[in-house]
Every structure is written in structure tokens, then in C-alpha cells.
Amino acid sequence: KQAEKAVHQKKEQSKTKCRKARRRHINLVAEFNRRQRKNIWLETHIWHAKRFHMAKKWGYCLGNSPTEKSYRACYRAMTKHCLLQDLSYYCCLELTGKENELLKQLARICSIDTGLTFEEACCLSGRFEGSLNLYQADCYPEGMLGPVTFIWKPRDGSENRQLWIWVHPALKQDILRELKAIFQCSEPEEIYIPEPVTTSIQEEKQTDIVLSLGKKRKKEDKEGEKAVPVKKIIGDGTRDAFQSYSWISQTTGIVISDRTMEILKYRLIGPLSHSVLTETLKAASLQTV
Predict the structure, then answer these.
(1) pLDDT tens digits for 114-147?
(2) What is the pLDDT of residues 186-207, one digit of tens each?
(3) pTM surpassing 0.85?
(4) Domains of the chain: residue spans and CATH
(5) Which of 97, 118, 153, 227 could form a disulfide with 254 if both were Cys (CB 3.0 to 4.6 A apart)?
(6) Are 165 and 192 contacting, i.e. CB atoms less than 8 angstroms apart?
(7) Residue 276 CA: distances (Å) to CA of 100, 142, 263
């Protein structure tokens, strides 16, 4: 009786894949995308996850505190070398349109009494980044929205300009709502509908045939032909993938675009920051047609 009881209570064999199968690229991407459904990862997430305690804030998974006592190393890097911070979780709002119309409406949500404005000459040329506090339209000194940083794209001879405004994810919705109101941008310019993650088996076969020409075919998973490539999740921590990300005004012609997670932002601190940039970035040669 004990033997029969043991046979009935025997658990079924686990269907979990072996470690080698789990570590395959297609399976890793699928697992990473599954874990990003609620909290979006930055491009440096893997590096931070191995060295930091991660915290879930504002729809992102961010490095909160280091696992090792690296405060002295960070301080030494800031004072003598170079320290890099990933600020890509900051939201980027892009404004495109005529310069006069942009400055006219942006003057309603800031004040010269607080310091620099969008019309500052050094910032308007595109050489320097500016910072200021935004307020509700025509409500200064009341109705403060929060601090932002901005940078203009240098002039290219056209009257149309591009302005990038960086806002904290906690302030994005309020500031975006105010910008859409002052520029009268109510109609979505385009709505992005992401492609489905799964494809038909027939399409997958055709893709495998094209990719396998002249190359060694990779070993299939246990599912065989059912294994499909996994696409990266579209969207960010403050916007759903199915929401519109660009709005246009029929009266002013101004276009507001949400460039969050499309334009990344890094901060370099330290005396060798300029040297690191010059060694990393190479100037392109000018080509005239």
C-alpha cells in the first residue's frame, strides 16, 4: 500500500527548460520582455542589476543603491576622473514649429523673474542647455509645474526650429497637458500600433529558409517550429504602447512629440569628462554636394 501510494503521489516531471535552453538568445529576450511589462528597463539595466539594489519607481526599474561600498570610488571619480549617470528615465518632449510661435506661447509658462527663459541668446543658438521652472499658463507666480531642462537644435537656415524639453517622469503628464493646451495640439498626428509578437508558422518557415541560406541552422527549441522571434516592447514607463505619441495643432502648426526612451540622456561628472567625450566621439567629416 505504501508503494502504491508513493506511485500516485509522484509528481510529474518538470517541464522547465534546462539552463542551456533558457540561456539561448531568443529565450532570454522573451524572458526580459516578460519582466518589462510593468516596469521598463533602461539600456544599462543589466549592468546596474548586477551591481545595484534595484527600485521600481515611475514605471521604470532603476538602480537605487550599490551592493558594495563604492562611495569612495564614486567620489574619487567625480573629483579626479569621470563619473557617468544614466538619466534616460527622464522624459523628452520635442516641439517642432516656427520659432516665433514657439517663443510666443512658451513665454506664457515661464517668467524672466526666475532667471533664464527659452529666449536666452546663449540657449536659443543651441550651444548650451538651459534650465528653468514651468508654471501654468499666465499663472506666475502661482501654479508651478516643476523644473525642466531644455536645448534648442541649432539653426539650419529655416524658420522652423526644434526644441527638446527634459522633464521628470512624475511631472510629465501635467507638463504635457499644459503644452498641448497652449499650442492647441488636440489631434494625434499619428498613432503607433505595434506589430504582434507572434507570427504564423508558415511565415516563420519562410523566414528560416531565407536566414539559413549559406549558414548553419541553429538548434531548435523543444517547441520546434512554434518558436518565434520576440520583438522588443514598445513604449516607456509613462506611456502605453497603444497611446498616441505625437500631436499637431491645426491653427499654429506646432507638433508635440513624445521622445521618451528614443533620445537617451547621460550625465558625465568630473574633470576628465571632456576628455572621455573627445576620445569616444569622433567628428564626422563635412561633405558638400
Answers:
(1) 888 898 888 888 889 999 999 999 888 888 999 9
(2) 767 554 444 444 334 444 444 4
(3) no
(4) 19-68 (no CATH), 91-188+244-260 (3.30.70)
(5) 97
(6) no
(7) 37, 42, 20
